[in-house]
Records
---
Amino acid sequence: MKRIALILGLCLTGFLQISEAVECKDGETFIPYPKDCSKYYSCVNGVGYEQKCPDGFWFNPANKYCDYPSNIDEKYCPKYECPVGGIDYLPTPYACNEYVLCFDGTPVPQTCAEGLEFDPLIKKCVLIESSTCEILNCPEDSDELVFLPNKKDCGSYYICVKGQPVPQSCADGLHWSVANSRCESNETAGCNAQSFKIALAAMEPIPASTTFSIACPFFGIHFLPSPTECEYYFGCNNGKSHLFECPAGTAWDQTKKTCVYKNLVERCFYKY
């Protein structure tokens, strides 16, 4: 009886938040949300509506309900060892441009700005050619050609075939260009494999002594823009705020809830 009450309570709580919709297959009722275990989709008449589990719970794909993280198989949701207090950054097994922000013991999925990847050694978003991340993620089904760089060899790259990376080589003297997805001369390709020194500013919280402050919601984890500077944003955890600074050259996008290049953020235009 207690288990039934728990499931019912979690499901009812989850339905309070509806935003994104996806297509559901016949017979599906609840489906996992990609790369964020705290969310799931509820299927109604073939349409899946985004839902969120209550704080502290994850969606269990095996049982189709919000559950304690300790009850969920790691093949569905990797377990991240987040410190109880403070801030930390962890890589994910999914993609190089994604990472996990450990926020006072709570893992929060994050994405680097376009053109950047999370480097697990220095725990920062850096230029793709400077990243030590070696995850090769090919889409399972794609009508377009997908290329991936070889970060350890400027003269080679990968092409995705049926979801698998297949190694390829440029002609002698040519390097792979990430920007143009083709082999070019060394001067124009801009490849810097084997060199991991080009890093953007760390995604570190500003020291607690800062005079910046903001009113946070009392419950849950939220990310809010700084009211004065577009390069800064606040992370809120159950009413407690932390001020963060985006990597150099980027600014906070409240719609996407991530740092993107400044020229894509309208509220930064006055700085140019």
Note: The chain has three domains: 2-71, 87-128+199-271, 133-189.
---
Amino acid sequence: MPLYELVCVAKHHSSLSPLQTLIRTSSALISDNGGVVRHLDHWGTRNLPQRMKVGKRRGGGGGAGEDAVSSTGDYFTLRFDCNPPTLQTLTSRLRLDPSVLRFTTLKIGSTLDQIANAPRARGENRTVKFGRDAPPVASLAAAQGGDAASGLDAARETMMSRTTQAQTTRRAWDEL
């Protein structure tokens, strides 16, 4: 299953319960369909780059609060493995959810090499090469003074650390 990263901006509320509900329903959808949530990162409340209309969705009736404007939002990221039909269902639910202002889903990779070579931190200035331009794991290991086996061992350690991240994520959900 491919590894995806969801970056979401939700409407800001004085309590965290709507945000908790959004995160729990999204992660439950992923796990109920055979996926695994690897990491949750709550960035907190931030000012939006521009004011956004809140609460207006396709097919909605002419309610009184449809033209409300928001200038702040709650940001979070979710890293998860899932199959494409589950991703499509998650995307359609987020699109219809009135508490979601904006979201995007990025495919990190579907093979061990792609995932191991992906940037791990926000703001990391590193060029990621794909296709023919990407160096194989063996040449990466040789450049770091190791051999091909150590490069594969490093990739395996990265995958094992993702299991630890999933356990840490569960603790973060309990704190929310």
Note: Residues 148-175 form the longest helix (28 residues).
